[in-house]
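2.7 Reproducibility. Because tokenized structures are sensitive to small changes in the input, we list the exact sequence used for CubicO group peptidase (Beta-lactamase class C family), including any N-terminal residues retained from the expression construct. No trimming or masking was applied before prediction.
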Amino acid sequence: MKLFFLKGMVALLLASTVACNSKEKKQKEAAIAQAKVDSTRLVYNANNADLKIDAFMKNLHSKAAFNGNVLIAKDGKILYQNTFGWANYLKRDSLKIDDKFELASRF
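Resulting structure tokens (single pass, no recycling of outputs):
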């Protein structure tokens, strides 16, 4: 009887260990798959830009002298990305998408 009970306990321990390993493996695989999806969503192709947004931003730049970088995203996917104006007007240094800005606010 004790031997039967001992065999049952060993089988139960093995089954739970295998189940935990497969669950962890599935979680890791799911995380890797999600990372791949997320990384492809961050890739932006200017040929796929939203034409309405592009027209609006170009009009804002030409009529109201908008200067800056624009990034519009929805559900983690980049819909529009562009730069307008100068990083340094006096030196005629064009703004680049990876230029950094100092931000400030007043209370």
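The two ends are 78 Å apart (CA to CA).
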